[in-house]
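Researcher: Hi, I'm a grad student and pretty new to this. My advisor asked me to get structures for two proteins we've been looking at. I'm not sure of the right format, so I'll just paste the first sequence and hope you can take it from there.
Model: That works fine. Here's the first sequence with its structure tokens right after it:
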Amino acid sequence: MAVGVPENEVFAAADAVLARGERPTVERVRLELGRGSPARVGGLLDQWWEQLAERLRGETRLPGLPAELAQAFVVIWQQATTLAQGVLEQSLESQRQVLAGEREQLAAMEAQARQQTAEALAARQAAEIRLSDLEQLLTQRLTQIEDLRQQREQLLGLRDEARQQLVELRQQLLESQQQAEQTRLEQQRYTRDVEDRAFCEIDRAREESKGLAAQFKDAGSRLQAMQQTLLSGQTELADVREQRATAEAQGQAWREQLEQARQACVAASEQRDDLKRTLQRVEAELASTREQAAASLARTEVLSEQLAAYQSSLGEKSSRRSVKASPKTR
């Protein structure tokens, strides 16, 4: 705006503002003029306030009127001024009530914000405690999983050892069966040979028994010896068969141990799957708790920002009202 607005225009604008029942201020006078710098208008407005008392007494504006008429005009002007001041006081009182209501509302909002902040902090602390518990539980589950993994490796090692022992036992059993079969075949051949020789000796003894009783007795003795040899061979065959049965029993025992080891491996695998599912559930709960804690913290920050913005707005309103009321105080 241009600088150097005339004095009479500023005074006329102040009179117009006062005539509307409002207190003349720099902003209102500039608004009425539509121009003028705040410094220029403020200086002239101070002069206007100094001349206002003289104008009310009728010393400058009513020089040519009779004394009674001037006094009556002054009385009317004072009444109008008093009425304007009453209107202004009522307006200020209503503004004070509005300001008091806003202050009470601000106090209530501050209390609510403090309560919500305390609740958010409590929820955050509970979430942190829950998070710590879940982390401890997760550590325990991981430790259990590691123990089970080690047990599984041990069981797998035992299973491999059992398989190796079973292979060795099967090899031993096969060798024993082969040896028993070979012994049986040899015993059969030996028995056939003995029987063949015995039969030959019996036939020859029978032929010679007619005239050779002595030779018959000798042949009988030889036959008895051969029969004893045959009995001994049958005993050895029974021993071989017993050894074979023992080897088969040992093989059955190793097969049972192998089945038990396989069942233990299956149980360990099932327990590992259960622990994996538990770990997944615990990780899901942990993620949910972290999201809730983040949401509570974000809500607390939003409430703090709203409270700060409202306090700033209320402070600006109080400052503007103080500036508007300052000319009257002077």
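Researcher: Oh nice, that was easy. Here's the second one.
Model: And its structure:
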Amino acid sequence: MGDKSAMRKKDYLDELDSLTVELVKLQEWVKAKGLKVVALFEGRDAAGKGGVIKAITGGLNPRYARIAALPVPTEKEKTQWYFQRYVAQLPSAGEMVFFDRSWYNRAGVERVMGFCTEEEYREFGRSVPEFERMLLRSGILLLKYWFSVSDDVQEARFRDRLTDPAKRWKLSPMDMTARSRWVDYSRAKDAMFEFSDTPDSPWHVVDADDKYCARLNTIVHLLKSVAYEDLTPEPIEMPDRQKAGKYSRPPIDSQKWIPLIYPGAFAKASRDAEASRDAEASRGATAGGAAEPSDAGPGAEIGTLSDMAGQLVPEKGKARKAAKSAKSGKNGKNGKDKGRKKK
């Protein structure tokens, strides 16, 4: 993740699994009662908004839990009522919508970067409290989260994104400009809270320096914000599979199968690692003491994932042979793994 956490990853994942079960119960309640839930996620760049949304929605039915992450408005949208394109994303009965940034763009990036006029900004400040009261009167449950991240943590996350090819898409020249205008964004956020942190639609501030904790704390708050009951369906009995009768399936080689790149040599590495652990445990038991840990972790001898893909992709025959070997439990053509001899 590029961040240190007060929680171990295993503990975080265990808690997330438990909370995901509760989120599924919440979704079933929202569907059954025809509720409409909107959650806004705002904050500085790299505050962890997207990660929290993924953690919330990961186990939910996407037909009833939608993410709204709107791009820059088109020329046509710029001529519309400011809230118009956001209204189109609001939920129907039984739905939950999670906004990864929202209509508060006007009070943040548009204000700081000069993408709106002074009059447009002031009109937004006058309109947004009444707009949100309209949503509440229509039966929408509105939750607004602001993710607060410190200067040092944001910089560390930016640097992590700069060096990680899988995360580099998250950065843009706009992010770098925003970084250089840290204080301007602070002033804009303070002003935004003055006119939009209302008793009927308050902001809930999340300490976002620790991503694991921020995700779990937000999920717990969301669950406590909606009174729900457990509507988990009764277990369904699985029927026997229909018998084939006179039906005969076409030959398996008549279909276009994707190449069997995996598990390939990874399957052998997994078996070798398991055998090594068993051998270590056996030696430890024989010696009457605890087994000494191996210097190399499971699969360490096979190199990186990209290295393995580069070796396997051009050699489809070898990949198939490795997969066949994994099925039969036999060693590959290189014989036993010499890198795991007893010391």
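Researcher: Is there anything I should tell my advisor about the second?
Model: You could mention this: Strands lie at 36-43, 65-68, 95-100, 140-148, 203-207.
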